[in-house]
Design a protein that fits this description.
The complex is a heterodimer. Helices cover 56% and strands 11% of the residues of chain A. Chain A is of the alpha/beta class. Chain A folds into two domains: 75 residues, Methyltransferase, Methionine Synthase (B12-binding Domains), Chain A, domain 1; 125 residues, Rossmann fold. The longest helix of chain A is centred in the N-terminal third of the chain and has 23 residues. The radius of gyration of chain A is 17 Å and the shape is globular. Chain B has a domain of 241 residues: TIM Barrel (Alpha-Beta Barrel). Chain B has a six-stranded parallel β-sheet. In chain B, strands 2-1-3 form a three-stranded mixed β-sheet. Bound molecules: cobalamin.
């Protein structure tokens, strides 16, 4: 895979370049979603360098801030799509995990595709998913997870839904950097979503929308 | 003071000072850390009381010292009593934001905005009172309205200088300060008495004065961990100038505290400079230069910085060796102690490293084995003090006892 200049700028912590490139792309009419994907690819570079010991926590934090700043102008674009609602998604980053960018994107993209989102935030208690489903009657639950060390928390969260007798009522979608199909099998989720867009496709399928 | 305790006090003091001066004491010195679970489990003095009740807290510290009989006594002063009436936001402790049986936790947040560096650098004292106090202490919000402290001279300024204190927020601040002042005075007086009481019972205090590494002064209390990391990229020069500005203040504070307490050891905690948080290059640019000058200045004053190096520090050792010999003690958390000895031998005393995790979940036999290894391979020619790797909050009492007793038995040179 070739790395786009935007992804490279994020990966190299070139803040100004990243911000300018996003603006240029928007001005040229590029789709917000594809710009986001490039930003995300940049974060993957950062993640790899962190893993290899080239980057430290300071770089991770700086990259996170660049992502937020550069991505800010995309939000409006993403939000403005549709207003009607096909169904409700309860969304959160699982307990002991505080990564929220991916989850926020999912919230925005789902919302712009006509799915109402109840965002529980990060480090979400298992029971909070249950409470929110009960209260809203949601049929979709989305869990975001960026740390392999909290896969068991995600598993427990799914189990808590089961214990509350809600598992048949809801479809569980999961996603986040290190998550894959094997994770979905392990934690007992229904769909693994590689991107927020995959999440929309899965959600629409479940809700019977085209 | 009985002759026996006078003798013990002198022996213990000499043992520690010999180790710091890189001489070989009669045996490896050892200290037991903060009281941890002993007061609540054995004396019925709760964690909350240890933060809030000045007498009972110091009694807990004293009784714990008598129980462990180690070479120096570390104290967590009952600061909750003063912080509480002021509504301090950045510390939680048992019964005050945390469950009854927990230790205390610092709450990291951004108190100063990046745009405010210039103001801090221009007049740190004014910044401290009007910006830091008013934000970090919930009850002191009213101080934010004061006029800049430096403008308060002469007579015409008076109404303007004090007007903010007439507002409801100002009155609330004054009420809180009245209460906190009374408790603060009581605490400070009691602390002096406590030091004497320990000495009379034959125990040196570990340290009385403190100094903050300049980088952490900015990072811990003003910009927060995240803020200071962003500043290394976005406004590195300001961060450096602010740290420079803090340096003489840190030195002054430590020297004054040591003179008042007649205790040459100065506690310095390294938070933000550890491995993982920043690269070695960043450490060398932002963290070490002002820390090093702090250590050198304290050494020149005849003091001994006791530096708690939290987290991992293997890659920092070579840099940390650049200090005057026989003055500094590095208290290690996670480090390869053999390598630390190799790199720092002949330069600095090394201390600690008995993992708090081992003291918490291990057995006395595990602890003895760990200590034996340190005595056999690290303590060899002096310049070493046995102790825990950090705060002994949830440790097992019998494990700490094993660390102390074993070192006293097996650690003779
Ligand atoms: C930014 C970042 C941080 C920031 C987070 C800031 C924030 N507010 O979110 C900070 C600095 C705080 C951070 C902290 C830590 N991090 Co981090 N972090 C990252 C990094 C570089 C990027 C993550 C990111 O935002 N990506 C961009 C977003 C848009 O992508 P995404 O989350 O994957 O989401 C997309 C899809 O996955 C999908 N998706 C995600 N969730 C969901 C959910 C549903 C329902 C659906 C449908 C789709 C979906 O949609 C999104 C858009 O398409 C990753 C590296 C990486 N490759 O992921 C490491 C990484 C996740 N972090 C890691 C680590 C180790 C940590 C720390 C433990 C570091 C430390 N020593 O303190 C802490 C943990 C804190 C905690 N308890 O959570 C490791 C995890 C390793 C592992 N084995 O699990 C990684 C992989 C880095 C690495 N390679 O080592 N981190």
């Amino acid at each position: 895979m070739t790395t786009s200049p935007l992804a490279q700028a994020v990966g190299d912590l070139e803040e100004e370049t990243a911000v300018t490139l996003v603006q240029d792309k928007l001005a040229k009419g590029e789709a917000a979603l594809s710009i986001l994907e490039e930003l995300q690819a940049g974060m993957n570079i950062v993640g790899e360098r962190f893993e290899e010991g080239e980057y430290f926590l300071s770089e991770l934090i700086y990259a996170a801030d660049i992502f937020k700043k550069a991505g800010a102008p995309l939000q409006e674009e993403l939000k403005s799509a549709t207003q009607s609602s096909y169904g409700t998604l309860v969304l959160g980053t699982v307990k002991n995990d505080i990564h929220d960018f991916g989850k926020d994107i999912v919230a925005t993209v789902m919302g712009s595709n006509g799915i109402k989102v109840i965002d529980l935030g990060v480090n979400v208690e298992h029971q909070a998913f249950v409470d929110a489903v009960k209260e809203s009657g949601a049929t979709l639950v989305g869990m975001s997870c960026l740390l392999t060390t909290v896969f068991d928390d995600m598993k427990d969260a799914v189990q808590t839904l089961k214990d509350a007798g809600l598992r048949d009522q809801v479809t569980v979608l999961i996603g986040g950097g290190p998550v894959d199909q094997a994770t979905a099998d392990y934690v007992g989720a229904d769909y693994y979503c590689k991107t927020a867009q995959d999440g929309v496709i899965a959600a629409k399928k479940v809700l019977g929308v085209n | 003071m009985s002759e026996e305790s006078l003798k013990l006090l002198a022996e213990r003091e000499k043992r520690i000072n010999d180790a710091i001066a890189l001489r070989k004491p009669d045996r490896v010195p050892v200290w037991h850390g903060v009281p941890g679970p002993y007061p609540s489990e054995r004396l019925g003095i709760t964690r909350e009381e240890q933060m809030m009740d000045v007498e009972r807290s110091l009694e807990a510290n004293f009784q714990t010292a008598l129980y462990y009989q180690s070479d120096m006594v570390e104290l967590m002063p009952p600061i909750g009593a003063t912080l509480d009436p002021l509504g301090y936001r950045n510390l939680k402790w048992a019964g005050h934001g945390l469950p009854a049986n927990s230790g205390w936790q610092f709450v990291d947040e951004e108190v100063m905005k990046p745009e405010e560096y210039d103001e801090l650098i221009y007049d740190p004292s004014d910044f401290m009172v009007r910006k830091y106090w008013s934000r970090a202490y919930g009850k002191l919000a009213g101080l934010a309205g004061l006029m800049p402290l430096r403008e308060g001279q002469g007579y015409f300024a008076a109404p303007f200088a004090f007007a903010a204190l007439g507002t409801p927020a100002g009155q609330e601040a004054l009420d809180a300060l009245r209460v906190a002042g009374a408790v603060g005075l009581k605490t400070v007086t009691a602390l002096a008495g406590h030091g004497r009481r320990l000495a009379e019972a034959g125990f040196p205090s570990s340290w009385a004065a403190m100094a903050q590494p300049p980088f952490d002064f900015v990072g811990d209390f003003l910009r927060g961990r995240k803020g200071v990391m962003l500043d290394m990229y976005r406004c590195p020069e300001k961060l450096e100038v602010a740290a420079e500005k803090m340096l003489p203040m840190a030195i002054e504070m430590a020297v004054r505290g040591s003179k008042m307490s007649h205790n040459p050891r100065v506690f310095v905690a390294i938070h933000g400079g550890v491995e993982g948080f920043m690269s070695l290059d960043q450490y060398k640019r932002f963290y070490w230069p002002t820390l090093q000058r702090l250590l050198v200045a304290l050494a020149e004053e005849g003091l001994s910085p006791f530096v708690l190096v939290e987290g991992r520090s293997n890659s920092r050792l070579e840099t940390m060796a650049d200090i005057p010999a026989g003055k500094v003690c590095y208290w290690f958390d996670h480090v390869d102690m053999r390598r630390a000895k190799e790199v720092l031998g002949g330069k600095a005393c090394i201390a600690g490293n008995v993992p708090v995790s081992l003291l918490t979940v291990g057995t006395p036999d595990d602890v003895r084995a760990y200590c034996k290894d340190l005595i056999d391979n690290v303590a060899v020619d002096g310049g070493f003090i046995m102790g825990p790797s950090g705060q002994t909050e949830d440790v097992k009492i019998e494990n700490v006892k094993a660390m102390v007793d074993f070192t006293k038995e097996y650690g003779a040179y």
